[in-house]
């Protein structure tokens, strides 16, 4: 389980992959989908956890849930529940340690 810098006792962390076990092709495959890339870019701009309803995605709730799950399972985001809200956070530091420069390259590419 990932401990985020924003974790408080009222949060319930969702399980996510340990980045040491994630392969680069898994990360690239997850980031290769436009909706997931949009989520990651929004999190990078926000620089803080975001409520999953705040992304304004143009897909159904079940489809957005799937996209968040893929990002979590590929080690790109961490998620936690706080009350009735679910928050997502980009694992920037961990990704940079595991795959130096990858996230920056993906986020700055056109």
From TrEMBL:
The keyword Repeat does not apply. SMART domains: HTH_ARSR. InterPro entries: ArsR-like_HTH, HTH_ArsR_DNA-bd_dom, HTH_MetalResp_TranReg, WH-like_DNA-bd_sf, WH_DNA-bd_sf. Residues 16-110 form the HTH arsR-type domain. PROSITE patterns: HTH_ARSR_2. CDD domains: HTH_ARSR (cd00090). Keywords: DNA-binding, Transcription, Transcription regulation. This is DNA-binding transcriptional ArsR family regulator.
